[in-house]
Each structure stands twice: as C-alpha cells, then as structure tokens.
Design a protein that fits this description.
Elements (H helix, E strand, L loop, with lengths): L1 H35 L12 H6 L39 H8 L6 H9 L1 H4 L13 H13 L15 E3 L5 E3 L12 H15 L34 H6 L7 H9 L1 H4 L13 H12 L3
Antiparallel strand pairs: 1-2
Helix pairs in contact: 4-6, 7-11, 9-11
C-alpha cells in the first residue's frame, strides 16, 4: 500500500508541474502580445511601433543621450550614420572590428541587413540577439534608431513623433515639455530628458495608462504600490511594497537601486546613481496626474 501511495504522489507531482508549465506558456504569449501588439488604434501615443520593437534592445544597450556603456552592448544614441566600431572603450569582437575596418557605416541598408540576421551579416560577432524577421517591424525599428540623434530630425511620413498628451487632447513632443518653471533652464531640461528617456521604453507616461513592459506611470506619485490592474507583479515586489504608497522619498530609494530596494523584481533597469537625475525624474513623475 505504501508503494502505491508513493506512486500516486509522483503522478500528482507531474500533473501539477504540467499545469504550471501550461499556465506559464499562456502567460508568456499574453505578455509578448502586450509588448508587440498592434498599435494602429494607439497611433497618438509616444510608444509607437518603433519604440515597441526597440524594447528588445533595452537590456543590452543604452538608448539615451547619456550614452552609458553596458557590459553587454554599446550605446545606440547616434548610431545611425555612424561608422561601425567607434564607441571608445567597448570590447568589440574581432569579427566585428574586421567588418568595421572594411568601411561599414550604419545606414538604412546596413542596419536592415544586420538587424534582420546579425550572425549572418557579421559571422562571429558576439551579439546574442537573433534578429527581427518581420519587415514592417524592422522598418519601424530603424526609423526609431534614426531618431536617436541630438539633431532630432522629424519622423518620416506616416510615423508618430514621441508625444505625451496634454489635458486638452492636443500633444507636444515629450522632450519639449517643461517639468516646472525652473525646468525652463536648459541644463535642467537636459538632465530631465536623460532621466525620463530611461522610463520611456518600458512604461506608458500618458493618460492612456497602457501596460507596455512595465506598469503605466501616470499618477504613480501618491499611488499605492502594486495596484495597477492586469499588470502581473512579482511576488517579491508585492511582498516588499505591501501597504506602501509611492512618495518622493521611497521613489528616490527605488530609482537609486531597484533590485536592492525590491529584491526579486524583474525590472531590468539598474537605477539612477546620480542624486540629481533621480530628483529630476521624480519631479517629472509628479507632473503626471
């Protein structure tokens, strides 16, 4: 009899593992469709198709004017039109440097070939990303990379500029919006831009409150943590923030070191180390209400 009990326990265990795996796959499909879903009905949002496609770049590359170096990939600000292999201090692979020495420049044609199949375009390069297979998504991604420029050229016909809707239904480019009167100072505006750019690819900052990769940030200051409906927080985050309301003080601690503040969070962002950047970001978040 004891032998049969053990057998039943093993069978029940396998059944539970199967159910967990099935649930995980269904959730993953839903999560991926949230990130890469069709945006035709949300064309006025700053989160356009190019930004959605670029969400795959965020874990390995800095997409902001700060051009921060990552251990995994070089910064991509200003990549369009730049000769390959020119980021000082980044350890490019031998194969990549050989292609760069042959005169490779990142233009529309070369980016299209590289991003559609990185390993085929530069055999032996160490980039783990396998490529963008859909032509429309690839075109949107390249257009977005072209916008990562200090000159900020206008978007191509049919594309949406980065926007944040104001109360009257009109919209203004996000980078031109002052945080407050003091932010009209150019230096403050630049610092705020750097801080806020790091939120844009994973969070919706508009009244739409859409889930992108992370929860929307409209109204976050003064909101109870972990309360965005339909967003699947980690158990670790919910436990750490139970009963907590987002204030300037705890946002400052969280933004300084997200994983230190809430161990187990799946937020990829490593944090804003400079106090002035955090203060600028929090000042901007306070305006989102």
């Amino acid at each position: 009899m004891e032998k049969y009990k053990d057998l039943v326990a093993i069978l029940v265990g396998f059944l539970l593992l199967g159910l967990v795996a099935l649930f995980s796959l269904k959730y993953e499909d839903r999560f991926v469709s949230t990130i890469h879903g069709d945006l035709d009905q949300g064309g006025d949002l700053y989160v356009d198709r190019g930004r959605r496609a670029a969400s795959a770049c965020v874990p390995c590359h800095d997409l902001t004017p700060a051009r921060r170096m990552s251990r995994v990939g070089p910064p991509l600000w200003g990549v369009y039109g730049r000769p390959a292999g020119q980021v000082a201090g980044y350890p490019y692979s031998t194969a990549y440097l050989a292609r760069a020495a042959a005169g490779l420049v990142w233009d529309e044609a070369s980016l299209e070939q590289f991003l559609s199949n990185p390993r085929q375009f530069i055999p032996g390069n160490k980039m783990a990303f396998t490529g963008v297979r859909q032509e429309a998504e690839l075109a949107d991604l390249i257009l977005f990379l072209r916008s990562l420029d200090d000159k900020k050229p206008p978007p191509a016909k049919g594309q949406t500029a980065a926007r944040v809707a104001d109360g009257g239904g009109a919209s203004r480019p996000l980078l031109e919006m002052p945080v407050d009167r003091a932010a009209r100072d150019e230096a403050r505006r630049r610092r705020t831009t750097v801080a806020v750019e790091r939120c844009l690819l994973c969070h919706d900052l508009t009244r739409k409150r859409e889930i992108v990769v992370g929860p929307p940030l409209w109204g976050v200051v003064g909101r109870r943590a972990g309360q965005v409906r339909k967003f699947r927080y980690t158990a670790a985050f919910l436990e750490r923030t139970r009963g907590m309301t987002w204030t300037s003080a705890n946002l400052d601690r969280f933004l300084a070191d997200p994983k230190g503040f809430a161990p187990g969070t799946r937020m990829l962002f490593e944090g804003l180390r400079q106090e002035s950047e955090r203060h600028d970001a929090i000042a901007f978040l306070k305006t989102l209400h």
